[in-house]
Amino acid sequence: MASLMHINFQEVAMESNFLDNIPAGEQFLQNKKSPPEEIPVLVLAYLGDAVYDLYIRQYLIEQGITRLNVLHKKTTGYVRAEKQAIAIRFLEEHLSEDEAAVARRGRNAKNGHPKKGKDIGIYHYSTGMEALVGYLYLKQNYKRLQEVLTIAREAVEMSEISLVQKQ
To answer: 124: domain CATH number?
Structure first.
């Protein structure tokens, strides 16, 4: 993961973002009843899974990929549990105390059983990643959410490059 250290966090914050169409101070979806801190962590992860998937789909479409089978395959390559675990492990050292607490709660949540033959630890880490994304989304901290999503995507891309170079 040392090769990921080249990421410039200021540049990431300035990158075009999929949340640009949300006017400042407005919510995309109204959530007036429950502050994110009071929402069960697995519900945050459920929402975060959808937000991360949408971000990746939009990113791939913006890259010019328009064939559905290719979009699906590439999206899966980013959002599967193993890749989310890589992303959150890289992000951990860059999280605020509140963000780290949410990711830790997600990681420690009892979220069922992984597919047969899969590592339960990977699923716990991926749940932490999804919970963090859901939390930032509901906090309406869209700038930070964009940073986290972009860094997560870049971490996954760098892990793929490292894997190819090792072969």
So the answer is: 1.10.1520.10
Phi/psi of residue 61, each to 5°?
Answer: -65, -40
Task: Categorize the per-residue pLDDT at 2 as very low, low, confident or very high, splitting at 50, 70 and 90.
Answer: very low
Integer CA distances (angstroms), 120 to 48, 76, 107, 156, in order: 19, 19, 10, 19
Map residue 58 onto helix, strand or coil: helix
Q: pTM score, two decimals?
A: 0.80
Provide the terminal-to-terminal Cα distance of the chain, rounded to the nearest Å: 17
111 in a structural domain: yes
Residues labelled as active-site residues: 49
Q: Does residue 115 belong to any structural domain of this protein? A: yes
Nearest CA among 131, 130, 142 for reference residue 84: 130
Give the pLDDT of residue 115.
67
- Residue 21 in any domain: the answer is no
27 vs 47: CA distance, rounded Å:
15
Cα separation, 56 vs 77, whole angstroms: 10
